[in-house]
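Re: beginner question about structure tokens

> Can someone show what the tokenized structure looks like for a real chain? I only ever see the sequence side.

Sure, here's an example I had lying around. Input first:
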Amino acid sequence: MPSEIFEPEEFLALADKASECRIKRLGDIMKLKLRTSKRLYTIVLDKTEGEEVLSKIKCPKKEV
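And the corresponding structure tokens:
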């Protein structure tokens, strides 16, 4: 089961361990998914905050 994260800082900390980040854009909302070796983590952000978080993530990014 995926785990939903609500704090962007916690999401960025998990991004260091992730193998990839998937991005799904839904109008004014952006859903980011991190795949780690054990679990899938998701976070739902507005468009501007999502772009800020994406600029800080260093793992490979994939648009869905």
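Each token stands for a local structural state, so reading them left to right follows the chain. The CA atoms of residues 5 and 19 lie 17 Å apart.
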